[in-house]
Every structure is written in structure tokens, then in C-alpha cells.
Amino acid sequence: MTNMKRRVFLKGILTTGGAVCAGMLIPQVVLASWPTTAFNAGSVDQTLKDLFAGESITESAKISFPELPTLAQDARSVPVNISTTLPKVSQITLLVDKNPRPLAATYLLSDRVEPKLSMRVKMAKTTNVVAVVKSNGKLYSARKKVKITIGGCGG
Amino acid sequence: MSTILVKTNVGPETTKVRMLIKHPMETGLRKNKKTGKKIPAHFIKTVTCDLNDKNVLTADWSIAISKNPYLSFIIKGAKASDVLKISWVDNKGEHDTRQGKLSEL
Description:
The complex is a heterodimer of chains A (155) and B (105). With 155 residues, chain A is of the alpha+beta class. In chain A, 27% of the residues lie in helices and 37% in strands. Chain A has four helices and nine strands, in the order H-H-H-H-E-E-E-E-E-E-E-E-E. Chain B has one domain: Immunoglobulin-like (Sandwich), CATH 2.60.40. In chain B, the strands form two sheets. Chain B has a four-stranded antiparallel sheet, with no helix packed on it. Chain B has a three-stranded antiparallel sheet with strand order 1-2-5, with no helix packed on it. In chain B, a hairpin with a 2-residue loop joins strand 3 (44-51) and strand 4 (54-61). Classes of the chains: A alpha+beta (155), B mainly beta (105). Chain A binds chain B through residues 24, 26-27, 30-31, 33-35, 39, 76-78, 96, 99-101, 103-110, 112-114, 116-123, and chain B through 14, 27, 29, 45-46, 48, 51, 54-67, 69-78, 87, 89, 93-95. Strand 7 of chain A pairs antiparallel with strand 5 (70-76) of chain B.
């Protein structure tokens, strides 16, 4: 990886000049942390193993999904928010159990950010939504079921 | 025109940041109904949020995040004059950045 980057960098200087090359490098630097293996994993268990190297995860009632609907109107855009009262939260991860690739998103939080995030997520079918929170260096999780109706008719 | 739409709500103790990014978030699993060919994946992988050049939040996203992604978060103890910088980069290497004072975003 480092060698590749250096090669790209050198090539950039030789062929296109420094300015363009600096522009091209930005995405690579930003992308450095994207956990490819975990994002490609096909099950929740495998994803957690890839992402957290088999660390144990404790269920916690201090994690909630305040506005997550139990019945989703539009599977392409389900509002998900994760909130926790756990202290010193450094990472929040969201998994959608029945999606082909369960890992939906993982967030790294500094101590300036409150552990309350909202987003919109696609869901393939009726599924459990799992949140994993890293608090004080330990992992905690919570889950909630979301029912997906195709075409908006109950079932 | 930036692809990033930001709304901030600066309060005495916390600041709520809401953003909407214009992006197709194509999964790579859908097929074009006319040609039967798969539409290639095109999705945002990483979003970074910096406050006064210090990283406060980094999001790594998958194809499961909805089209035109929405994200909101809350910053503690920020001032209206603090500068927030939001950047995204997708799987094709396309990227965009928006920055400004919290009171002006």
C-alpha cells in the first residue's frame, strides 16, 4: 500500500505536476480507514469478527433507537437514529441483519460529539437492526426489529 | 453548487448539524430493466467532519445508506464562529468539501 502510494505520487509529479497530483491523493488519504473486509462480510457475526477482532460484546439497555419505526413505509429509506447514555463513546456501528451485506455504517466519534446520530438506510426485508457502541474501550450492543412492507401494504 | 447541504442549529451548550449530500448511492446490485445489465456500484465510502481543523466525526458508509444521504449529529460546546468542514469521497474517487462558520452554514 505504502509503496503503491509512493509510486502513484512519483508518477504524478513526473507526468502531471504537483498540483493535480495533490488533488488526486486526497481521496486515498481519506479512504485509508474504510474496513473493506467487514463491509463485504455476509453475516452479522462475521462482520463483527472482522470489525472488532472477536472482542466480546455485551447487550445493553442504554442504547436505543428513539425514532426507528417498527413498520417501515419505504424500505429504500428507513430513518434510523442511534442514541446512548453510555459514557466515553468512541465508535458507533450500525448493522442491518437481513441485508446481503449487513454492515451499513460505522462512525468514529471524538469527545466533542454526543452519541446521538441519525441517518437513513436501505433494508432488503423485515430485519433486526443492530447497533454496536464502543464505550470506554468496551463493546455494547442493542437490537430492534423493523418490519418492511413491499408497496406499503401491511404484512 | 456544492453537493453538500448543511443546516446548523447553534445552541448555548450543543450544536446540531444536519447534512444532506446529493449522491446516487448506487448499490451495484440493481439491474437496468431495459438492458438487463447491472448498474455499477457508486456510493460514498467516507464522510469526515472537522471542527476548526480537528476531526470530530468520521463516517464509513456502505451501499446500504440511502440515496441522497442524510446525517445528523450533535457537537458539544461549539461556538458560532467555529469553522466546520465536511468532506466526502466515494468509491470512484469523486469527492466534495463544504466548509464555513457554524453560524453561516
